[in-house]
Amino acid sequence: MNLPPNAELHDYSPTPVSFRKAVIEGLGQPQKTLPCQFFYDANGSRLFEAICELPEYYPTRTELGILEAIGPELGEQVGPAVRLVEFGCGSSRKVVAVLQDMDVSTYVPVDISRSALEQLVRDVTRRFGELEVQAVCADFTESFDVPGDDGTRTVGFYPGSTIGNLAPPSAERFLSGLRPLLGPGGMIIVGVDLVKSTEVIERAYNDAAGVTAAFNRNLLERINRELGGTFRPERFEHRAFFNGEESRVEMHLVSRAPQSVAVDGVAIEFEKGETNHTENSYKYSLEAFRALAGRAGYQPHEAWTDQERLFSVHLLRVAP
């Protein structure tokens, strides 16, 4: 990729070996699992962007509306000349809403999908021609070097309710682990999906057009392409439902019949009705997320919601 002089890309993306290890280990568990961070190859990223445009899928447009409404206030509260580090950036639409009202000296987008990251760099540098962009291709839940001036105040940006893909103890550990990067008094902006009616939640993950089902099955297709897998995706049914006891949406791929598949020569057996658990999306109340942030070492600074209270954006400050 040819980058403009104000942009650089640092590649720490997972190797095929780490992808293989995660898949083999996950499928070897009593409850078979597949790692959701590997949804986002080029085709998976394209399908997720299509999901974000669906009428049933409220999180993206609702969060974007909140960010556009609070932009000037957010910029004022964050203050001048910051390094903005975005975790799991995907497309540029949300960060544009932040950058246009925030004084950012260096923007550091971090994403596991190189293709999505390259498109984001093109979009951002086209829109903000003088902004220094230090892009990082990495699994942001793992350790990696963050480029840019360590002397600059750092603000984290974690939109998209991606925090919901982590179980609450893991979300707490992740946020706590960011505190050294953010530094004393540092801040992070977090998008958090809120608890609401089960009907609204489940409709968002079971769209009529079947795009979410295709996104879910694409993980099997990626395994076939990159790990010599023998999955027949049509033999797995997409299933998504709200688990009220755990306050999370669960996505599964359900085997339609007894079958045997191989991944890089390793045989895996499925019974009829057996599932691959591919993703969780936890939903919080405002109070529950503030409590989690407090346990992770943050002080709630501000929280904004839409009028229907579907979604929330939190500004947290690292506690002394």
Description of the structure:
- The chain is α/β, with parallel strands linked by helices and 320 residues long.
- Helix content is 36%, strand content 28%.
- The protein has nine helices and 13 strands.
- The protein has helices at residues 16-27, 42-52, 58-78, 93-99, 114-127, 168-182, 198-204, 211-227, 286-295, and strands spanning 7-11, 82-87, 104-111, 132-137, 153-158, 187-193, 236-243, 248-255, 259-263, 266-270, 275-282, 298-305, 311-318.
- The strands form three sheets. Strands 1-4-3-2-5-6-13-12 form an eight-stranded mixed β-sheet, sandwiched between helices.
- β9 (259-263) and β10 (266-270) form a beta hairpin.
- α2 runs antiparallel to α8 (211-227) and α3 (58-78) packs parallel to α4 (93-99).
- The longest helix has 21 residues, at 58-78.
- 39% of the residues are buried.
Number of strands: 13
Shape: globular
Oligomer: single chain
Largest sheet: 8 strands, mixed
Strand order in the sheet with the most strands: 1-4-3-2-5-6-13-12
Q: Could you name the ranges where pLDDT drops below 50 across 5 or more consecutive residues? A: none
- What fraction strand? 25-35%
The separation of the N and C termini measures 42 Å
Structural class: alpha/beta
Query: How confident overall, as mean pLDDT?
Result: 94
Round the Cα radius of gyration to an integer and report it.
Answer: 20 Å
Q: Helix amount, in percent? A: 25-40%
H/E topology pattern = EHHHEHEHEEHEHHEEEEEHEE
If helices are DSSP runs of H or I spanning 4 or more residues, what is the number of helices? 9
